[in-house]
Specification:
4 helices, 22% strand, seven-stranded mixed β-sheet, alpha/beta
């Protein structure tokens, strides 16, 4: 049991800390969201999982649009990056396997499937967080079962969309971690902003 004098000392120290740091009771205190997971893609099979998720969403979107379900889908050609080329082929495989019409070349009155990449390099290193007691229990369980891997400073957002006559039929975003050294698989060196020394925020289209 904490003695009264020790408790008063702790409270006094906390008060001095709040005053010295300029804290005010009139503004909200910063807090982290509850601990949750975010996928980290590290293999072509992981790319295929995202392609399958996109194909499933495409199928569902067209089922909701009887006027479009029979129209051919044209996937815009990829860039020369390994991810873009592989993702293009994985999308074709997944769409065809689900019985959808995939056009090899543009056709009149077609649906256009396109995807863009946005990469963000965080200036503050990740992995230095301190979870809550409940979150620590979840984290330990994940480490024991092999469900967790290391975070990274690079995050990637993959935006997939289907357009018809300048209208969105579907828009889907995947947000994932990637290995820090793997970023050239997704964007080219020429795409980097030479003026950005600590951040890399690049949007690439598969045109």
């Amino acid at each position: 049991m904490i003695q009264k004098s020790a408790l008063l000392s702790i409270m006094g120290l906390m008060g001095l800390t709040m005053v010295s740091s300029g804290c005010s009771t009139e503004i909200p205190l910063a807090t982290a969201p509850p601990l949750y997971t975010q996928q980290k893609i590290q293999a072509i099979d992981h790319w295929d999982n995202i392609a399958n998720d996109v194909a499933m969403r495409v199928q569902k979107s067209l089922e909701d649009r009887p006027d479009l379900v029979a129209k051919p889908i044209y996937i815009k050609p990829p860039t020369n990056r390994p991810f873009s080329t592989a993702f293009y082929n994985l999308l074709r495989t997944r769409l065809v396997s689900k019985g959808m019409q995939v056009a090899d070349k543009p056709e009149p009155d077609m649906l256009t499937l396109d995807y863009t990449l946005q990469m963000v390099l965080h200036g503050t290193p990740h992995g230095t967080w301190l979870p809550s007691l409940g979150g620590m229990g979840i984290a330990v369980a994940g480490l024991v079962t092999g469900g967790y891997t290391t975070t990274s400073n690079h995050e990637l957002m993959i935006n997939s969309r289907i357009m018809h006559n300048n209208r969105y039929v579907m828009h889907l975003s995947h947000i994932v971690y990637i290995n820090d050294d793997d970023w050239p698989l997704y964007i080219s060196h020429e795409s980097m902003d030479p003026m950005a020394s600590t951040t890399r925020n690049v949007r690439i289209t598969n045109k």
